[in-house]
Amino acid sequence: xxxxxxxxxxxxxxxxxxxxxxxxxxxxxxxxxxxxxxxxxxxxxxxxxxxxxxxxxxxxxxxxxxxxxxxxxxxxxxxxxxxxxxxxxxxxxxxxxxxxxxxxxxxxxxxxxxxxxxxxxxxxxxxxxxxxxxxxxxxxxxxxxxxxxxxxxxxxxxxxxxxxxxxxxxxxxxxxxxxxxxxxxxxxxxxxxxxxxxxxxxxxxxxxxxxxxxxxxxxxxxxxxxxxx
Length: 229
Ligand SMILES: N[C@@H](CCC(=O)N[C@@H](CS)C(=O)NCC(=O)O)C(=O)O
Known about the structure:
Blueprint: E1 3-8, H1 12-24, E2 29-34, H2 46-49, E3 59-61, E4 67-69, H3 71-81, H4 92-119, H5 131-151, H6 165-181, H7 190-199, H8 212-218, H9 221-224
Parallel strand pairs: 1-2
Antiparallel strand pairs: 1-3, 3-4
Helix pairs in contact: 1-6, 4-5, 4-6
Glutathione binds at residues 8, 11-14, 37, 54-58, 70-72.
C-alpha cells in the first residue's frame, strides 16, 4: 500500500509538493489531486478535509494511518521516508543553508498571501480587508525577495550545486506570484530572476492548471493595490 498525498493541482503550498514529487519521483507515494476547492461539489471530499484540523492541502496519510498536514512537515517526512535524491543537502552546512532559504521563502509567502488576501479582487467582500495591510505586506514581500537575492550564491540551485527542497519552495512561491497574480520578481534581484528563469525550464515546474476565472481576477494585483516596483 502506498503513502497517500492529497493535494490541489495548483496553489503556493500544494505546488511545493507537486514540484518536489516530480523531482524526487518516489515509487511509493500515491498522489490524489483535486482541481480546486469547490464546497458545492464536495471537493476535496469532507472525509479528506476532516483528516486534519485545518483541512488545508496538502495532506499526507501514511500506510499506518498516520496523518500530517502542513507542507513543510510533509516535505521533511517524505525526505525521511522515501527513496530518491537527497533533497535536504549533502552536508550540515548545505542543510543549514537550505533551511535558511526555506524559512525566508516561507515568510515571504506569508506576506504575499496577506497582500493578496487584503488587496485582490478575489474574495473581495467575502473577507474583511485592509488596504494598509495590503500595502505593508507587499513591501515586506519584496523586501524578502531582495534579502533572498543577497544571500544567494552563484550556484546552479538555491542553496548550492544540488537541488533541494528550497528550490521546490522557491519555485512554488515565485511561480504563483508571477503566473497567477502577475507579480514579477524585482529587476534588481538578478540572481533570483536568473535562477527562476532556469528552474522554470524543468519539467517539474511546468505551469499548473489554474482556474481561469479566478486567475483573470487575480491578474493585476499590483495595479489593484497601487503597488509599483
Ligand atoms: N501552512 C499550510 C497552508 C496550506 C494552505 O493554505 N493550503 C491552501 C491551498 S494553497 C488550502 O488548502 N486552502 C483551502 C482551505 O484551507 O480550506 C501548509 O503549509 O500546508
